[in-house]
Amino acid sequence: MDNTFYSNRMQTPTMMGDGDEPPIARLLAVVSRLRGEGGCPWDREQTLNSLKPYLMEECCELLEAIDQEDAAAHRDELGDVLLQVVLQAQIRAEQGDFDFAAVADHLTRKLIRRHPHVFGDVVAETPEAVVRNWAAIKQQERQGNTPVQTLDGIPVTLPALHRAQRIQERAARKGFDWSAIEDVLKKVEEELGEVQDALASGRPEAIEEELGDLLFATVNLCRFRAVHAEQALQQATRKFANRFHRVEERLLAAGRRMEECSLEEMDQEWELVKTEQVT
């Protein structure tokens, strides 16, 4: 694939925002220049594999910016994620596979194809109907000589809680689901009992297995109440970290280090911090 378009468009660096060139075109030209002869040594040596950890980090930073409700940080982190997309498309273009325009075109066509209730004559008046149509169209697209399985396409690299919830959602679409939340609660209680039995046995492999089953059942409880398990745990972890930090601050202000305090003393500070944050 000819990749000279972007490099020829930008022979010298320009400030972003200068001129009348569309921002996306300028971005593509900048990345092409960075990857080209005489460009940036770091950018030039990157590969699809070397960029993977950066993509993961940038996605995490984007999620954090959203949680912070900081519009400026959100804009910046969206740009950083977009850079990862553009870099990967640039590498593929250099290999003669596809370019950013092909990515955008493929996405546009897919969005139109999977929204026949907007761009066609299909009726879907609820979000649930849209999801059902989307899943059916997606399955048709992937259908080939090999039958498509219900759980196909869920990345194994997703965070564990997120992946568990996606798997449960897919299974539920096939009718493999609890009928009432009371049944889910009973399952959580059952799994907790099995954890207690495993702890009593002292067998590490049994303890790990039963704790995993308890977590999976808890994710089901989250899903049943439309709570995103990954986000719920992130929020709980963030709350714990903030309170722990505040306890440490209070103790240091009093001239004491945490390791010098008893558990009872730290618990007292913890309760004070909880009250402080509630009020």
Topology overview:
Elements: H1 4-9, H2 23-35, H3 41-45, H4 48-68, H5 71-94, H6 100-113, H7 116-119, H8 127-142, H9 160-173, H10 181-201, H11 204-224, H12 229-253, H13 263-278
Helix pairs in contact: 2-5, 4-5, 9-11, 10-11, 12-13
Notes on the structure:
With 279 residues, the protein is mostly helical. It has four domains: 4-104, Orthogonal Bundle (Helix Hairpins), CATH 1.10.287; 114-142, no CATH class; 160-227, Helix Hairpins; 231-278. The protein is built from 13 helices and no strands. The protein has helices at 4-9, 23-35, 41-45, 48-68, 71-94, 100-113, 116-119, 127-142, 160-173, 181-201, 204-224, 229-253, 263-278. Helix 2 (23-35) packs across helix 5 (71-94).
Could you say what the CATH architecture of the largest domain is?
Orthogonal Bundle
Characterize the overall form.
Answer: extended
Q: What is the CATH topology assignment of the largest domain?
A: Helix Hairpins
Number of domains: 4
Q: What is the alpha-carbon Rg in Å?
A: 26 Å
What is the C-level CATH assignment of the largest domain? Answer: Mainly Alpha
**How can the largest sheet be summarized?**
none
What average pLDDT do the residues reach? 89
Number of strands: 0
Percent range for helical residues? Answer: over 70%
Q: What oligomeric state do these chains adopt?
A: single chain
pLDDT < 50 runs, ≥5 residues: 1-17
Rounded to the nearest angstrom, the distance between the terminal CA atoms is 62 Å
Number of helices, counting only DSSP H or I runs of 4 residues or more:
13
Percent of residues in β-strands? under 5%
Helix/sheet category: mainly alpha
